[in-house]
Amino acid sequence: MVGHQECTMEEDTRDNYTPKFWRKTLTAPAPFADETSCQCQAPHEKLTIAQARLGTPVDRPVRVYADGIFDLFHSGHARALMQAKTLFPNSYLLVGVCSDDLTHKFKGFTVMNEAERYEALRHCRYVDEVIRDAPWTLTPEFLEKHKIDFVAHDDIPYSSAGSDDVYKHIKEAGMFVPTQRTEGISTSDIITRIVRDYDVYARRNLQRGYTAKELNVSFINEKKYRFQNQVDKMKEKVKNVEERSKEFVNRVEEKSHDLIQKWEEKSREFIGNFLELFGPDGAWKQMFQERSSRMLQALSPKQSPVSSPTRSRSPSRSPSPTFSWLPIKTSPPSSPKAASASISSMSEGDEDEK
Fold this sequence. Notes:
Layout: E1 9-10, E2 18-19, H1 49-53, E3 62-68, H2 75-85, E4 91-97, H3 100-106, H4 114-122, E5 129-132, H5 140-145, E6 150-154, H6 168-172, E7 176-179, H7 187-196, H8 198-207, H9 219-278, H10 283-299, H11 336-353
Parallel strand pairs: 3-4, 3-6, 4-5, 6-7
Antiparallel strand pairs: 1-2
């Protein structure tokens, strides 16, 4: 078996007080007390708490004992053992675990059996040794057998087995060292949570493949739990659809916002282009004015030249008369002969002008 710190200190080349066997509880489970072959061979003198706090004796660790049921081993148990382990500079922690028979007799039914509780303690980093089937009340013979220096437990009187406090004689002997309980966590609290939410855990385990017989569930409750599981699945599907719908709506809103923004930009651009073409000073108006002026120039008659370019204009000569092209009102011819006579007279007048 693996040796531990309670072994006799032997001189080594590295250190004058290096243990011959190194403690392995950080890399291997703690051993059981009835399986270890390493016994304390140094003189076991009675210590006071003050001496132990100073780190004496130097030839062996202070042997501290803590006991309990340790059902559903939790952080509150671990913190209590940590306090027991760190009470003194050099300590060796022995943990006693009561058997199922003793526990069921004095305290009640446990969730974990004794083998499971023993094994849980072996894997706690603060434990150096586990004592199976520990006594409910500590006797002088038990303390002497395991060379126990001090007993660590919380200071609340523990009434059981017909006694107001099972640690009363330990306290009177000056061997009791108190530890602090961790509030908010205990085995009873954990069991209370399970009982309170029993239906939830029963449905959970049915989903995971446990049978109604294994869960001690009646036929009617089994059907009820399975129906509730189906309802929960439907609720979950609806919830997923709602979440996906929300995501889709959010994406549509984002895209619509982008489309509206682009539409506004295009609208501004269209209105600007329209005003540039058809506004008061737009290009269309200028183009229309230019075309109108060209049309007017094309429709208006050309005027005769005022003077010849080679001759100088005589100051005494009056300018040639201009003729206005005004329409002459004529009465319609009364007969074809009259019409022909008027046409012939107009032609004669043209020849005279030439």
